Amino acid sequence: MTRDTYPPTRQPHAGLHPAESMTRVELERLQLERLQWTVRHAYERVPFYTRRFDEAGIAPDDIRELADIARLPFTTKEDLRANYPFGLCAVPRGDLRRIHASSGTTGQVTVVGYTQRDLDTWADLVARSLFASGVRPGWTVHNAYGYGLFTGGLGAHAGIERLGCTVVPMSGGNTAKQVQLIRDFEPDAIMCTPSYLLTIADAFAAAGLDPRATSLKVAVCGAEPWTDAMRKELEERLDLRAVDIYGLSEIMGPGVANECVETQDGPHVWEDHFLPEIVDEALTQVADGERGELVFTTLTREAFPMIRYRTRDLTSLHPGSARPAHRRIAKILGRNDDMIVLRGVNVFPTQIEEIALGIPELTSHFVLELSRSGALDELLVKIEAGPGTDAAAAALAADVFRASIAERVGARVGVELVAGGSLPRSEGKLKRLYDLR
Ligand code: DLL
């Protein structure tokens, strides 16, 4: 079974897809058609959804308007694990053209599969995301997202080609070679995690090279939470525009949402393919502008349709700006499973990052160590001071850092200055939190 509604044209090499300039009313009409298709497709093809919908007493014909989505049951990461590997697949195995997997924190991977049409849509949406980022056909794009089961490398790769650019399929790691090839091939844009871009900038500096003197004009960064303070740091250190790309394997991979370079005000969700909602802790939908957990329903996925998938990412929805019909998500605060609850206060690594980058003597190289003393949890922030900062200035900065965290986050934490270069450097997704309890 294929979708009955499909984009009228492929994403053009230059310029906008018709769906990007629709009115909100036109977009919602398309969303409703596609939601009805998806719900029926999932219900008829995936026993898990048949059972879930039957239990909830809802049938595909009950979806008459977009608001009816609130009657559908949620899908969670645990559901994906329980149906590992192909229980949620809605097409015959032979129709899958590719499989990706995301490594869960508990070790068990979750699997996603794509039909040819799913892969085409994905390439189109990454091309759309790159165009929104300011990348143009004919450019060379250095792709330092990891290749393999992770969706970052191959997902970005197909979109770079689809836009009509030259891809350098570098993958992650091997930082000295990244530096060398950026110098030799003179790419116009780079795709990698924000923390890895920082590692690359450090490697330029360590080699006595000016990171501001590269050919790079745009960095398309995502796959992990990062703050506007980090954006500023990257833009200043590398003299480029850093744009936010968001996505997750369960929904597609990179390119579910992307920021526009002209506004840099949070990723636009490509709502012709994904229907976003924000829910509170009671799993009730909240209004646009309010923060909660981001939930996605895929609207065109053939192989692995996802109904109300709970991402665990905390953010809020806002009206579209540079693409008026497509709502934006605010920068992700963090995942609710990355949240540290310290004596009743919620702490996110992004809050610490923002504060650290506001103190000139400190760097964004820090880790969080959670330990237990008696009945109480304690958080220690280990951080590197900037190169050339003398001991007295660094100690003073550490005091300011501790006090700012107490004031702005409301949490009492320990701060320990560690030697420059002693903390692990990112080669992809950065691990900030070490739970020693
Ligand atoms: O990280 C897909 C991706 C690759 C996105 C390359 C962007 C660029 P997963 O490995 O399944 O997929 O991890 C998805 O990463 O739920 C968020 O918690 C986080 N994440 C992804 N993009 C962003 C972003 C890829 N721009 C999980 N800002 C998501 C904040 C992000 N967090």
UniProtKB/TrEMBL annotation:
Source taxon at top rank: Bacteria
One Gene Ontology molecular-function label: nucleotide binding
Catalytic activity: 2-phenylacetate + ATP + CoA = phenylacetyl-CoA + AMP + diphosphate
A Pfam family assignment: AMP-binding_C_2
Residue ranges of domain AMP-dependent ligase C-terminal in the record: 344-437
UniProt-listed Gene3D superfamilies: 3.30.300.30, N-terminal domain of ligase-like (3.40.50.12780)
Top-level class of the enzyme under EC nomenclature: ligase
Assigned keywords, A-Z: Ligase, Nucleotide-binding
Pathway(s) per entry: Aromatic compound metabolism; phenylacetate degradation
Ranges for domain AMP-dependent synthetase/ligase: 102-296
InterPro entries recorded: Adenylate-forming_Reductase, AMP-bd_C_sf, AMP-dep_Lig_C, AMP-dep_synth/lig_dom, ANL_N_sf, PA_CoA_ligase
EC numbers, comma separated: 6.2.1.30
GO biological process terms, semicolon-separated: phenylacetate catabolic process
Subunit record text: Monomer.
Function: Catalyzes the activation of phenylacetic acid (PA) to phenylacetyl-CoA (PA-CoA).
Family membership noted in the UniProt record: Belongs to the phenylacetyl-CoA ligase family.
Protein name, as recorded: Phenylacetate-coenzyme A ligase
Organism of derivation: Leucobacter komagatae
Lineage: Bacteria, Bacillati, Actinomycetota, Actinomycetes, Micrococcales
